[in-house]
């Protein structure tokens, strides 16, 4: 009898220790998973630096970051939509539409016999308003007409592209430099200016990322967004203005797309109606590599930025090393798939980790270790 | 929202949307979509089929080249007294097949087609021919003879050679250069790249330091060129598979503050001709898009009237070199006197 009790105690003690060890191991694995995008980025930088001396130079880092910025701006907008549990396929077309609108405005707007030449800041605002409008229609379709986000934004993808083609009559606006006589010069600065040594596009990315991060972390809107994406019904019952949140994420995403379009048009000082084709997929890839769940409610700015850097550095690195385009496409696809597989495994580990910690805690608390595990879990 | 108002609101919104969609589609058909020009006199020798419709099918008019081609064919056909219908297949063989079906059901007198793929288009062309409608191919060939009545294409190989020669001459036969190629699945991308190599490889002083595809795209060419410049800042020339990519290269060189780099493209687009005039591009090989389309319509007219085109099936049109000396004589893919 006494022996049995001792045995039982010993068995329970052993089980408890095992559970605690397992919980700790899963915790370590979890943090490695958490950092996987950073690790991937580090690995990319090391590999490309070893393969080419011109990869790890300040100048190249700045150039690559400028390339990343275009996708990152789109991806930050996309992140909000994905956090909500939606998707925005129209952003690539909004990029093209925004450039075309800029081209049309800089050419001069005919109002009767009078021709108005909007200043560059006004052009930027009007383009972003156009992007917001595309987002508004997306949001309207999703919230009021109950169209699935995939379908609504797929439709708007064609509508916006068609609009860009109609406005431009299918041709490229060749010269967006403006004319000193009409006081609308300076559009090219957005693409080629370098205040404090960094391209304007990079500054835009930094500011936008900071703003989105603060909004997500410390405003009611951020909490509403995570709640809506996590469980829409529950969020609605607790008084979250779900419809308004859904509407605004599409509008923000549209505005971000327009901003991207402006950057591209400014870099090229020309605007093609077919610009931005398939950019939506790059933006989604960045968000997914950054660990966001397409089902909504999970993801953050840091991950999305790293995701955009992984995609951008991979693309530019492969060009610098001189790898053929076929391989570039292949490798990009493989990276996305691996990222998603890792994400799935992380979620499984997390569940097991929670279960293991729970096991460690529920077994009789003797000593301080289970408490520590419990407080960590 | 009250339960009574909700359906009413939804119905109104749906109605509004339908109206919007309708007005949009109306816009597109009066714009650049399919447009029929009725009320034209029938051509004198009109075929017994009862229709004098010429269907013009091209890839997307995004690219000014196809737009010029489409406009030239339409204009020529209407001047000969035909009705025209214009549509684009967006490089989608399936959509092309549907457009051919539509032309067959409308009993078109002829089809002018810039096809959606050398192999993928054979079936569609065969289908029209079987239905008794002659097909005249422009710009791109198909991999079968005896199906279409004519295949009129610009001589990409010859164009690449004259562009390559101009490139070598502008670089004074020596230096480091970069090549940006078109979409690798496109036959023309390969033919042009080979044409460039055939010429340039004869000059030992010319060294290719990087080759990448930029998928015919301006922004992709810009990004790739910026990245290539990081690895190879010391380059004297860039040759590209089309003018759109050449324009991206020009923008990238400008953003890197590099001057004196020789840029040569292909197509002869109005934007490239403007760059040549400005001195930022050295040359381009102009494909006479309008001429090919006009030839096809003339031969279609001939065939409708006499049952013969009077020409061999495969015809090529030579490209013309545009450089600073003669840039003033070119406009919209055609030479103006």
UniProtKB/TrEMBL annotation, chain B:
Residues 54-308 form the Periplasmic binding protein domain. InterPro entries: Peripla_BP_I, SBP_2_dom. Residues 1-26 form the signal peptide. Pfam families: Peripla_BP_4. GO terms for cellular component: cell envelope. Its main location: other. GO terms for molecular function: carbohydrate binding. Keywords: Signal. It comes from the Bacteria. It is found in: Cell envelope. Residues 30-52 are annotated as: Disordered. SUPFAM superfamilies: Periplasmic binding protein-like I (SSF53822). Belongs to the bacterial solute-binding protein 2 family. This is D-apiose import binding protein. It comes from Actinacidiphila bryophytorum.
């Amino acid at each position: 009898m006494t022996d049995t009790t001792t045995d039982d105690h010993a068995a329970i003690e052993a089980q408890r220790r095992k559970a605690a060890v397992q919980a700790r191991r899963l915790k370590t694995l979890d943090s490695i998973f958490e950092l996987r995008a950073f690790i991937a980025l580090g690995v990319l930088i090391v590999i490309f630096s070893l393969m080419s001396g011109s990869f790890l130079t300040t100048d190249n880092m700045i150039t690559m970051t400028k390339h990343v910025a275009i996708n990152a701006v789109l991806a930050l907008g996309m992140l909000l939509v994905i956090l909500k549990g939606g998707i925005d396929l129209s952003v690539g077309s909004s990029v093209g539409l925004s450039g075309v609108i800029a081209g049309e405005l800089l050419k001069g707007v005919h109002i009767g016999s009078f021709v108005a030449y909007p200043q560059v800041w006004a052009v930027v605002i009007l383009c972003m308003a156009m992007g917001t409008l595309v987002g508004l229609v997306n949001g309207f379709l999703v919230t009021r007409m109950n169209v699935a986000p995939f379908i609504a934004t797929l439709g708007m993808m064609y509508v916006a592209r068609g609009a860009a083609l109609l406005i431009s009559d299918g041709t490229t606006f060749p010269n967006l430099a403006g004319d000193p006589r009409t006081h609308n010069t300076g559009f090219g600065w957005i693409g080629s200016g370098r205040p404090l040594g960094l391209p304007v596009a990079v500054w835009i990315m930094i500011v936008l990322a900071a703003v989105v991060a603060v909004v997500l972390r410390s405003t009611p809107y951020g909490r509403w967004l995570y709640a809506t994406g996590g469980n829409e019904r529950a969020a609605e019952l607790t008084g979250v203005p779900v419809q308004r949140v859904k509407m605004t994420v599409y509008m923000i995403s549209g505005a971000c797309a327009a901003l991207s379009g402006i950057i591209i048009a400014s870099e090229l000082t020309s605007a093609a109606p077919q610009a931005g084709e398939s950019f939506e997929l790059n933006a989604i890839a960045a968000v997914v590599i950054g660990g966001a769940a397409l089902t909504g409610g999970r993801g953050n700015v840091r991950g999305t930025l790293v995701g955009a850097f992984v995609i951008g550095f991979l693309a530019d690195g492969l060009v610098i090393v001189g790898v053929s385009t076929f391989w570039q496409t292949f490798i990009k696809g493989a990276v996305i798939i691996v990222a998603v597989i890792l994400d799935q495994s992380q979620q499984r580990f997390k569940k097991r980790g929670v279960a293991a910690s729970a096991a460690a805690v529920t077994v009789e608390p003797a000593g301080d270790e289970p408490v520590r595990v419990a407080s960590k879990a | 929202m009250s339960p009574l108002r909700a359906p009413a609101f939804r119905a109104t919104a749906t109605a509004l949307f339908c109206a919007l969609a309708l007005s949009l589609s109306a816009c597109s058909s009066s714009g650049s979509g399919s447009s029929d020009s009725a009320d034209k006199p029938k051509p004198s020798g009109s075929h017994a089929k009862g229709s004098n419709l010429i269907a013009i099918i091209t890839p997307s008019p995004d690219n000014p080249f196809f737009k010029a081609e489409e406009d030239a064919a339409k204009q020529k056909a209407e001047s000969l007294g035909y009705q025209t219908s214009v549509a684009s297949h967006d490089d989608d063989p399936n959509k092309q097949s549907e457009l051919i079906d539509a032309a067959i059901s409308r009993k078109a007198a002829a089809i002018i087609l810039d096809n959606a793929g050398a192999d993928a288009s054979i079936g569609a062309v065969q289908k029209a021919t079987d239905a008794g409608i002659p097909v005249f191919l422009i710009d791109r060939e198909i991999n079968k003879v005896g199906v279409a009545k004519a295949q009129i294409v610009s001589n990409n190989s010859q164009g690449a050679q004259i562009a390559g020669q101009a490139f070598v001459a502008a670089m004074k036969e020596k230096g480091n250069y970069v090549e940006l190629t078109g979409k690798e699945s496109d036959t023309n991308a390969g033919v042009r790249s080979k044409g460039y190599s055939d010429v340039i490889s004869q000059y030992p002083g010319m060294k290719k330091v990087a080759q990448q595809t930029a998928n015919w795209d301006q922004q992709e060419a810009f990004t790739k060129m910026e990245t290539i410049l990081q690895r190879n800042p010391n380059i004297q020339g860039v040759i590209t598979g089309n003018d759109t990519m050449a324009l991206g290269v020009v923008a990238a060189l400008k953003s890197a503050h590099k001057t004196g780099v020789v840029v040569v493209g292909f197509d002869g687009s109005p934007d490239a001709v403007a760059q040549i005039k400005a001195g930022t591009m050295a040359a381009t090989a102009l494909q006479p898009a309008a001429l090919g389309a006009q030839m096809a319509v003339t031969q279609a007219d001939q065939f409708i009237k006499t049952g013969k085109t009077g020409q061999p099936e495969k015809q090529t049109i030579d490209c013309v070199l545009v450089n600073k000396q003669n840039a003033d004589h070119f406009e919209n893919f055609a030479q103006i006197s």
